[in-house]
Amino acid sequence: MSSIPRFHLAFPVHDLEAARHFYRTLLGCREGRSDSAWVDFDFYGHQIVAHLVSPSSASAARGKHEDAGANHVDGEDVPVPHFGLILKWDDWTALAEKAKAAGIAFVIEPQIRFKGKAGEQATMFFRDPSGNALEFKAFRDERQIFAVD
Fold first, then answer.
1. Which residues form the VOC domain (predicted)?
2. Pick from 18, 2, 28, 19: which is nearest to 99 by CA?
């Protein structure tokens, strides 16, 4: 077991089979327990659970399938809410290439954010089939994860 506490996140999806395909195939998540209305995934050691909701209730919860808002960060409008992972640099690069090859539409294209500043990082945003925003990032120097200017 990891010495770092693992997080648990439950999120809405409108199609469990599409969620299964996306999280297993693109992100490489192992599937855990499931039911007709939910499925657990091993999200790089963390537990995420896709809960089936009707498209109309998911849309209502997120404002007609839109984000609650966005924050302007280093020249980009970052969708809120979102979730994701901090990967190793090579793993981030491999995922970016895999997402491009799969024809994933990026909300924010793979790029380097905060170039030459504290917390410089590679980042990309895309959505799952139910519209949930995900961010994947990497730091060349992981000591910079919580760096301040």
1. 5-139
2. 28
